[in-house]
Design brief:
2 copies of one chain form a homodimer. Chain A has about 150 residues and is mostly helical. Chain A has a domain at about 30-115: Arc Repressor Mutant, subunit A (Orthogonal Bundle). Chain A contains 6 helices and 3 strands, in the order ααβααββαα. The first copy, chain A, has a 3-stranded antiparallel sheet. In chain A, strand 2 and strand 3 form a beta hairpin. The longest helix of chain A has 23 residues, at about 100-125. The first copy, chain A, is globular, with a radius of gyration of 19 Å. Chain B binds a DNA duplex (23 and 23 nucleotides) through helix 4.
DNA sequence: TATTGTTATACTCTATAACTATA
DNA sequence: TATAGTTATAGAGTATAACAATA
């Protein structure tokens, strides 16, 4: 047992990493209040930017949302001119979704803006600490892919 | 420039950590699909559990939501019997919000359930890798507190 | 008949504005 | 008059169910 007002045993390895992850994620999310795009919208543009064109179903699976939800998000991004829908040549039920040049530009700008706060925070750490976080990021991706 | 379908320079230190953090946070969040409580509701119970009683405004500030939003969340948790509202003795405009025994129990149970997936994932890593993540969690908390 | 995408509709969470009670 | 909390109402995002088009 610890002090009177901290009765929870939040000291396990997993709890510590879970709480740290949620806290940093929340902090990063609050930092992007400057731009108007939602997390979900940006995640779609980022996925298209990194992995190339997707069908609607592929995007929905990747982002773990339903097809109607993804459809709404894609509609919004299409209206904004950030992506295009093109019927698939070989299977005309499918729709290929791809970034426009403007979409690519908005990804680059959003990444730049979102990362600037984190870059400043990392700059205050030692080279050893930054290297540790770099390795940790790889492990976190590995764990998340499980 | 890199390969044709990966035009973004998402390879900076900050981008890598940001993406890994969001990805792991999303994975952890999806893993708690078994319980009915939302992230926001659980965060309130966890804050009360760790830091003791709060007023409504303090909870809203801590969770970075508006007072009406927090009010709704607190209403829901009060109906479920997880917390109590008590008018403040010295300033009767304020309301002190505190966990019930049932609230404390549900925090402990939820933490246990949410962490079990992560514990299994961590068990597949080497002791060195787990130690690295332990240190990284401390650094992430430090960065988030900035 | 199965699959892909879309539309219709409802629910949850959050926000702003307006209101009540107390300082 | 200012502050803490609450209520009223609206907007964003997500879900399930139903539908259309194609394989």
């Amino acid at each position: 047992m610890s002090s009177p007002h901290t009765p929870a045993d939040t000291t396990t390895e997993a709890s510590s990493l879970r709480m740290a992850t949620f806290r940093l994620a929340r902090r990063l999310r609050s930092q992007r209040a400057v731009d108007t795009m939602s997390d979900g919208q940006f995640a779609v543009l980022a996925a298209l930017n990194v992995h190339g064109a997707h069908t609607l179903g592929e995007l929905a699976d990747r982002e773990r949302v339903t097809a109607p939800s993804m459809n709404r998000t894609v509609n919004c991004l299409e209206e904004s001119g950030y992506l295009t829908r093109t019927p698939d040549e070989t299977d005309r039920r499918k729709v290929n979704i791809a970034l426009t040049d403007e979409g690519r530009a908005v990804v680059a700008e959003t990444v730049r803006r979102r990362d600037s706060w984190l870059e400043q925070a990392l700059a205050e750490l030692s080279p050893q600490q930054r290297d540790l976080l770099r390795q940790a990021a790889d492990l976190m991706r590995e764990v998340a892919a499980r």
